[in-house]
Amino acid sequence: MTESSSAPSRPVVTRFAPSPTGALHIGGARTALFNWLYARGRGGKFLLRIEDTDKARSTPENRQAILDGLTWLGLDWDGEPISQAARAERHAQVAHDMLARGAAYKCFATPEEIEAFREAARAEGRSTLFQSPWRDVPEADHPDAPFVVRIKAPREGATTIDDAVQGPVTRGNDQLDDMVLLRSDGSPVYMLAVVVDDHDMGVTHVIRGDDHLTNAFRQSMIYDAMGWEIPVMAHIPLIFGPDGKKLSKRHGATGAAEYQQMGYPAAGMRNYLARLGWSHGDDEFFTDAQARDWFDLGGIGKSPARFDFKKLANICGQHIAAAEDAALLQEIEAFREAIGDPALTAEQRDGLLRSLYCLKDRAKTLPELLEKAHFILAQRPLSPDEKSEAQLTDVFRGILNELTPQLQNASWSRDSLETVVTGVGAAHDLGLGKMAGPLRAALAGRSVSPSVFDMMLVLGRDETLARLKDAAG
Ligand code: GLU
Asked: What CATH code is carried by the domain that includes residue 290?
């Protein structure tokens, strides 16, 4: 019986262990986030291990894409990423230790013999799990032939994983075979590598997708055989799409990089991903500091969470609104770089910084914010888009000619600007609402922008008047 619910008394060490056979998936990003939050909230370490033993499918590009994705999400790891493949010798050494302890044995059965065993078992209606005849054969009787190293799995009793999310899960040991630890070429198998690495890295909590729960039973045999303390196991349910089926491209973007490219802010992504399968009361919006304080394994749900694109956008909008201007500007610049937009000039950066107060509410993504920022990023003479062009009628050009001298002498405050614009509008029977459209067109050349008065205040008198004169023609 294996118990794993009581936390080891060592400082917390978690890890994210992606296989670089693809880019960083949203599900992987959430697993990384949970591990990061758990460690960071407890002054622990968050390690990164690249499980690159599948040489055919692991690529340096995928490895880099995973590191980039984590970096974008702000999930910083401690130390250098560890390559699993580079540790193969150590993995093999542990298998030899197990041989020496009598916890493993050399098996000389050929593939044909194993197949024959299975066929006979099938014919007799017995379990087809291979039972090697070499399990108890003393070394002196071993042939000089190729062999694999197998674990001596318990044949009786049951193993219980006391999972921090799933609760106690028990499997009869008769369902576990003497799995291979070392192949006949001496290379270690993946299952052994994971356990050795987690042990050597001092991992105290394994938080990962519940598709690995079955592996946990096999892995616990290795811990037991080596007399190692098994980490706390927390197997988290998969992420589903809004229709309750496993999240896939059919539902929308599944790669972390795609969300970066769409301009979702990293803090919003972290907040939303944390809520995907974990909850803290009814809290939907929270800061990183709150998430670190609150995150615990008990708050992880047992059933799959559904990805809700609307909720994601909503939370991201709240994070943009709550962001500090300097940090938001930095994120905007990083975003522009990521999508290949030209870097901002010093002047644009300065203008943007002054306008963020009126740009950041109601923008759910950075492109939405940048669309509203067109008025400050564009240079005179503006090229109004079609909708704006249509607003600049002859009548309105006449109104602009009345407005500009008055603005020339107005004090540059919201109140007096409003008084002037309202006054000129009234003389033409136009309310503020009717004046706003064409003014917006003149000041931004776009129909999406902050309010007319915010634009005037940010642009200042000279630039405002110059734009109004441009528009008056
Ligand atoms: N490499 C595995 C994966 O990407 C994770 C293994 C683990 O977390 O133990 O699914």
From this structure: 3.40.50.620
